[in-house]
Each structure stands twice: as structure tokens, then as C-alpha cells.
Amino acid sequence: MKQYPVNLKIDYPEKSNKLTAFFRLVLIIPIVIILSIISSYAEALSLAVVLMVLFKEKYPKWWFDWNLALTKFWLRIAAYGLLMRDEYPSTETDQAVQVELPYPDVKKDLNRWMPLIKWFLAIPHYIVLVLMFIAVVFCTIFAWFTILFTGRYPKGIFDFVEGFLRWSLRVNAYAFLLTTDQYPPFKLG
């Protein structure tokens, strides 16, 4: 079976910091504020990418690089907020979050009319991801208590949360970043 072109890998920590895990909801506030300010502009730029693909059959490399950097940034914040990593999310380096998101050759890899309906085709994914997010919240609460008592993030929960983030990334790459026309699989791996 052909591997999906978009992928995510987060390094599993052998030990978690109990103190920063305890205060994580407070510690994450400044970086989430920065992300929300940046994201408000990024949402407006998404429409511009749709129009570029639709009418010019181009996806400017600098625009792709911006979207890739922003995607990596929110994934580092998600990994930090979900207690998967203890390093404070960097605005520059990838840290322990590796993202594979290929730059598309629009004329060869993308159907110019697909951006008009991709968001609609992804609705089944949104439904499943919302339900999975509820499970992720409960898993993160359980992991928080486990970290406080043992200093370790449970590996099974880590894999599940990482799979959820991977799935979310793939749907985002398909429906909004427009880097692939390959429909995202309904799986965590």
C-alpha cells in the first residue's frame, strides 16, 4: 500500500517534567496568544491559495513555506499542550516534532477544481476528529495525573494522541493547505 504523502512523528520522551506538567495550562497561554494572532492572518491567506490554484495553477513556494512553518508551529504547541513534550514550543526550530508535507507541483499533482469541494469532502473526517478530540482530552487528563505520579507519559496514550494529531494534519493538508489531492485515510498510523 502506498504511504500517504503527509506524515507526523513526535519523539517519545523517556521522562516528563512533573513541575512543568502541573502548570502546563498556565505556561502555554503566551504562546497560544501568539499563535492565535498569527492564525487570524493565515486563515485569510487560505482563500488566496485556493484562488491561485484555481485560476493560475500555481502554489507559490514562499506561500507553501509560510504554511509549512505555521503548521509545524501549531503542532509543536499542540504537543506541548497535550503534555507530549516538555520543551517550550519554539517559533524557529522543529524540536522533537517532525512534519512531512511535500511541496505540490500544482499542474501535475493537483486538480485545479478540487479546492472548491475538498472542505466538503472532508466532513466525515471532521466528525470523527471531533469525537476523537473528546477522547484525546480525557487521555490527556489521565496522562497528566500519570506524569504527576510517575514522571512518565503512558506510551499507549502517547501513540493515540500522536495518531490523532497525524490524522488532523492530513485532513488539514488535504482540505486547507491544499498540498495533496489524495484523500486522507481514516486511520491513526
Which descriptors would you attach to this protein?
189 residues; mainly alpha; two-stranded antiparallel sheet; 8 helices
Can you characterise this structure?
The chain is 61% helix and 4% strand. By secondary structure, the chain is mainly α. The chain has one domain. Helix 3 (29-56) packs antiparallel against helix 4 (61-81) and helix 7 packs antiparallel against helix 8 (155-175). The chain is globular. It starts with 6 loop residues before the first strand and ends in a 14-residue tail after the last helix. The model has no long low-confidence stretch (mean pLDDT 92).
β-strand amount: under 5%
- SS-derived structural category: mainly alpha
Order of helices and strands: EHHHHEHHHH
Uncertain regions spanning at least 5 consecutive residues: none
The strand count comes to 2
Number of domain modules = 1
List the helices and strands and how they pair.
Layout: E1 7-10, H1 18-22, H2 24-27, H3 29-56, H4 61-81, E2 97-100, H5 106-109, H6 118-121, H7 123-150, H8 155-175
Antiparallel strand pairs: 1-2
Helix pairs in contact: 3-4, 7-8
Question: Would you kindly provide a brief summary of this structure?
Answer:
This protein has one domain.
